[in-house]
Amino acid sequence: MMHPERCMESRIYNAQVLSKTDALAVRQLQASILRAREWSRYLLDDDPSPERVRAVLRVNERVFRKCIHDLHFRAAEIDLDVDPFRAVLAEHEALPPRWSAG
Q1: 25-60: per-residue pLDDT in tens?
Q2: pLDDT tens readout for residues 71-90
Q3: Residues 73, 19: contact at Cβ < 8 Å?
Q4: Which domain holds residue 26?
Q5: Which residue from 54, 56, 67, 80 lies 20 to 30 Å from 89 (Cα-Cα)?
Q6: Is residue 78 part of a domain?
Q7: Would you say the pTM of this structure is higher than 0.85?
Q8: CB neighbourhood size of 20 (10 A)
Q9: Would residue 73 count as lying in a domain?
């Protein structure tokens, strides 16, 4: 079984590098993004321990960095109207509160 976040990454590269952009491939890519976020939610719902919180924060950070720096992730939104950043789980009671500047 592949980690849901890595599956999403693979589907993005399939679409961007291998040009797998038929309707089924795009739906699978969209589903993989939602699956990655829901996996994080499942981890925290099942056991909101500090280790699980840290694991989810690491996945969030990895997705965030990919969305910022990886041209394939950035192009997915432009070319396919698919936003990989939606895989980030930001709202959950086990996660630390978001930092605010004001």
Answers
A1: 999 999 999 999 999 999 999 999 999 999 999 999
A2: 999 999 999 999 999 999 99
A3: no
A4: 4-87
A5: 80
A6: yes
A7: yes
A8: 15
A9: yes
